[in-house]
Design a protein that fits this description.
This protein is of the alpha/beta class and 349 residues long. It is built from 14 helices and seven strands.
């Protein structure tokens, strides 16, 4: 399914060059290695919880790579580590959320163009529409705007917030791309048992929104689809829905046991070809990369993972005073007195 009109001549993007293709592979390797390590960190007690994304690297890296960091803004869920990495977010600051050091991550959302991590299912889609509509209101007539990129899964697509967001975005012609990662499972429930219609992308027609259903395990296809969608939105044409078809190869989270609702054989059969190995074979066949490059990419990913792990270990507890300086926009006299007492007691500890 692809109901997105072709881009105007001035908005056409150039094909990815060999250097960009190698960049995408390196990013996917870095994400795979960090994701695998994060699961191990949870088992070791370094972080209390984590939502793996094994098998979804192409969907995340490809879409994050398409973002224009000078004007677009991304609204993630709790599983977009690959998007954050592709957007060059500080990964120690990002992973701090999984360490429960600070809500939403220690990175600066305004500087990175990545909103705080959202743990509420479908909680960020309305935020994305609000930000996108704000771009429209602030733009001069005829000017292009930045676009919002909002992530959610096939399970979250059943939430009422998604309907409201799609409807508002369509009515307001808000420049927002709704990026659905359909990984086949809404925690323990297969997609076909929790969502009617057979496709999230098909619902877009009911709102008058163009949609693209893309192979979410083909990183190049994801980059191209996301670029097209973002360009469509920036040009003032309203929202777009992308459904990236992929597969969650591991548990929903580190507290989940997928063996209770599917077998390892089912995982193997339904998951298809590993997106990382698939892209590797394409680069080899096209002469874009060789074994020396792949070895170097893996070595770089492992060195990066070690640096992030050391950075997480080095994080100190957050100062309690942040409760008064960052949580409340305006403090009441009672809160001011509480803060003064807190500081006084802290000086005597």
């Amino acid at each position: 399914m692809d109901t997105l009109p072709p881009p105007a001549s001035g908005n056409k993007t150039s094909p990815l060059n060999p250097g960009q293709l190698r960049d995408l592979y390196s990013l996917m390797v870095a994400v795979r290695d960090l994701d695998t390590s994060a699961v191990a960190w949870q088992r070791q007690g370094i972080i209390p919880g984590y939502a793996p994304e094994l098998g979804q690297e192409a969907a995340q890296v490809g879409s994050g790579y398409a973002v224009d960091l000078s004007r677009d803004f991304v609204f993630p869920t709790y599983r977009e580590m690959g998007v954050a990495r592709a957007m060059v977010v500080d990964m120690v600051a990002y992973m701090a959320t999984h360490k429960a050091t600070w809500h939403g991550g220690l990175y600066d959302p305004l500087e990175s163009q990545l909103a705080p991590i959202q743990a509420v299912v479908a909680g960020s889609v309305l935020h994305a529409v609000g930000w996108a509509h704000g771009q429209t209101l602030a733009a001069a007539p005829g000017d292009e705007t930045g676009a919002a990129l909002s992530y959610f899964g096939d399970g979250a697509s059943s939430q009422g917030d998604v309907h409201e967001a799609l409807n508002f975005a369509a009515v307001l012609k808000a420049p927002v791309v709704f990026f659905v990662q359909n990984n086949g499972w809404a925690i323990s429930v297969p997609t076909e048992h929790q969502g009617a219609g057979g496709s999230v992308a098909a619902r877009a027609a009911g709102y008058g929104i163009p949609a693209v259903k893309v192979d979410g395990n083909d990183v190049v296809a994801v980059v191209e689809a996301t670029r097209r969608a973002l360009a469509h939105c920036r040009a003032g044409n309203g929202p777009v829905l992308i459904e990236a078809m992929t597969y969650r190869r591991g548990p929903h989270s580190t507290s989940d046991d997928p063996g209770r609702y599917r077998t390892l054989q089912e995982e193997h059969d339904d998951g298809g070809q590993d997106p990382l190995e698939r892209f590797r074979q394409v680069l080899l066949a096209d002469g874009v990369a060789d074994e020396e490059f792949f070895a170097a990419a893996l070595a770089s990913a492992k060195a990066e993972e070690e640096q992030i792990r050391e950075g997480l270990h080095a994080l100190a507890p957050r100062p309690g005073s942040e409760m008064f300086s960052l949580v409340f926009q305006e403090t009441t006299p009672a809160l001011q007195a509480q803060a003064a007492n807190w500081r006084k007691e802290s000086e005597h500890v």
